[in-house]
Structure formats: structure tokens, C-alpha cells
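Here's my example:
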Amino acid sequence: MSGLDVVTGGAGFIGSHLAEALLLRGRRVRVVDDFSTGKRGNAPAGAELVEGDVNAVAKEAVRGADVVYHLAALPSVPRSVERPLESHRATAQATLAVLQASERAGVRRVVFASSSSVYGDTPTLPKREDMPPRPLSPYAVAKLCGEAYARSWAEHTKLETVSVRFFNVYGPRQDPDSPYAAVIPIFIGRLLGDRPLPIDGDGLQTRDFTFVGDVVLGILAAAAAPGVSGRVYNLAGGRPASLLALADALASLLGVRAGKDFRPPRPGDIRDSWADVSAARRDLGFEARTSLEEGLRATVEWSRT
């Protein structure tokens, strides 16, 4: 019988893609989700489902697992600014619950989904894992806290942990309707509806947009690579693009004109985000395979259907 893997947040955008990839590799998969942001339709057929808040169901959720992929969180900087206690509970506290339950259940490794937001607005580019973090939002603080817990467990218990920092992941299934939606589904929805694109600030801020399929490959590599317990890795394309360039690329793919609605910068947002992925390439064998144009085309095609 194949081994069992657990994906918390497995009905979410990234988690559902990861759960599908594990099933295709012949693994047994248990999805954990409370559906506060995840969608029932995203949970892949063939996966066992544990429904509930990770803080409450962690012990049940990780029982018998080989690897736990901990992706559950409230993934929004603006939401964390508005509701910091909720963000902390769903992100930092839930990570602590997963680590404790995993150690007691004899799990081999926990892969923790962290975020590029932990770097904050440090001026040095690209962002390297050895830079001092400067989180600007409660969400970023909670993710950094989760990394610290993961490193502590790796140093003081038999449980292996690896933290991976995501950089602006995008692709099919990313929710365009949430009030905290990411920029690419918002832009696509606006362009399809012939509405102007909301631009926070001057639009020259950069992001390292990373296709979800590439991120899944990086997560799987983090679960399998030897000798990396306790470490943190950037998972990204390593190629920055400005919001204005993104707007023009999407408009070109859709064959429309991109009107722009410039707004004040959002609290907690960072100016530039661009990853150095050399450590992940060296230790995990990770390399993003999907160009921004290819990834945007796939995302647009999904959005149209």
C-alpha cells in the first residue's frame, strides 16, 4: 500500500494542485480543510477528507502520515491587517499545532508553506534566505513565526521540517471573487468584464510571479531532498515583473485594452519582490519551468471556462 501524505489547506488554490499531484504519484492523500477560504469542489476525488479547523483536528489529521504538507492559513496581507488575531491563530498557532501533533504521531517530515512577505521592504534584491527578515504585516509575522517553530522542532526533535517561501503564486483555481483576491485573477476578471484595472500605487512595484505547477514541484522536492531539515528555501521563478507590465501582458493575451484605475498604496504591501532561487536549485534540484507568458495563458484559458 502506498504511503499516506497529509495536505492541510488541501481544498485551497495551491493545496488542491499539490493533493492532485500526490495522487498522480500513487500516494494516499488526506486533505484537511475548514472551507473558510478553500472550496469543496477543489478537493480532489480519491483523497480522504478531514473537515475542520487545523487547531482542533491536527491530532486526527496527521495520524499515520509519512509527510505533512502544511499549507493551511488565511492568505491575505490586507485581511491580516484588519483581523490580526484571526490571522495569528490560523497561521502561527495552527503551525504549532501541526508540528506538535506530527512529532507525536511519528511523521517523518513537515513541509511548511511560508511566504516572501517575511522579507518585508528590505532594499536588497534579489531576496536571499540569509537576509534579516522585516515583516510588515501580521500575516508576514505569523509566517515568520511558523518558520521559527519549524526550525525549533527540527533542532530539538526527530521530526524533520523544511520551510518554503512562496512568491506570488498564480494559476488555475485562484479565486477571483474574494475581497482579498490576488492581483492576477483580479486583473483577468476586470479585463474580461471590460473594467479598469485597480493599480495600488504607481504600478511600478515588482513581483516574482510563480506558476502554481512549478511551486508544486518545489514543494515535492522539499519533502524528498536529504539533508535539508530545518532549512528555509525560496520557491519562485526568479524573474520579476511590474504590475504595469503584467497588466499589458494580460491585455495582450485577451486582445483588449487595459484601462487603469490608480489608487493609494495598500498598508503592509512591499515595493519589490524578487527571489534568489540558487539555494533551492542547489539543495532541492528546483527550477521553475513555466515562463510568465505560458503561465498567464494557461490561467486565462481556465478563467474563460
